[in-house]
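$ ./design --mode recover --in tokens.txt
reading tokens...
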């Protein structure tokens, strides 16, 4: 009776349908994760390329600089006043009006018309102040956090994909070792069986009838006639 390969009935064998299905599902999942990572990388590259092109176009003056929606938060009082609206009768605070006149006159209450006032370090302070305000800008913070979160997720996906690939290779190696060990055991069993069969044949060909009967003494039926003749009596 041939039952086929008995190893296929063992749960650890790599060629069983269940294990083949597990390996196939793991490979499909790994491939999907790899494609997702490539898609995220492609989107990041495209976004960076668009930002660089926009920045270059703004630098050369090809397009107007894009104004952020929250720029009005950092404008001074004079930046929010329109003279046309004032002429049409819109009420304007006196302080704002004075600041507008000082700006048009080219002097301020702090520097006046002192020589060298145009070289005052107010520009550096204003740049530092603007940089500080940009860092505190809610929109800037949101974009920064979103970029960091996207990068963190990308790193996690890459690490997860790497771990799954290593785990898959370890499983395949373990199945290969088990298969090799099973093959060695089968060879040993086959060799021992052939050796015992050969010894039986040699013993049957070289021994006499009496020797074979003595070896099978327990399988013979001891009759009363045989006992009277002392046949093979112990």
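writing sequence...
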């Amino acid at each position: 009776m041939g039952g086929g390969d008995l190893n296929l009935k063992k749960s650890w064998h790599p060629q069983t349908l269940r294990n083949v299905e597990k390996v196939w599902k793991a490979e499909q999942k790994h491939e999907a994760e790899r494609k997702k990572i490539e898609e995220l990388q492609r989107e990041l590259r495209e976004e960076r390329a668009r930002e660089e092109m926009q920045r270059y176009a703004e630098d050369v003056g090809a397009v107007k600089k894009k104004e952020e929606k929250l720029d009005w938060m950092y404008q001074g009082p004079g930046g929010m006043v329109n003279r046309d609206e004032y002429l049409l009768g819109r009420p304007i605070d006196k302080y704002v009006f004075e600041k507008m006149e000082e700006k048009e006159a080219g002097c301020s209450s702090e520097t006046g018309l002192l020589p060298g006032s145009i070289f005052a370090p107010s520009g550096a302070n204003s740049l530092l102040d603007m940089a500080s305000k940009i860092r505190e800008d809610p929109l800037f913070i949101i974009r920064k956090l979103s970029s960091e979160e996207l990068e963190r997720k990308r790193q996690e996906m890459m690490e997860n994909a790497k771990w799954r690939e290593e785990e898959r290779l370890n499983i395949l190696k373990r199945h290969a070792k088990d298969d090799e060990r099973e093959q060695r055991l089968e060879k040993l069993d086959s060799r021992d069986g052939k050796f015992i069969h050969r010894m039986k044949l040699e013993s049957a060909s070289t021994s006499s009838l009496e020797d074979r009967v003595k070896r099978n003494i327990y399988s013979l039926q001891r009759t009363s006639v045989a006992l009277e003749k002392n046949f093979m009596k112990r």
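exit 0
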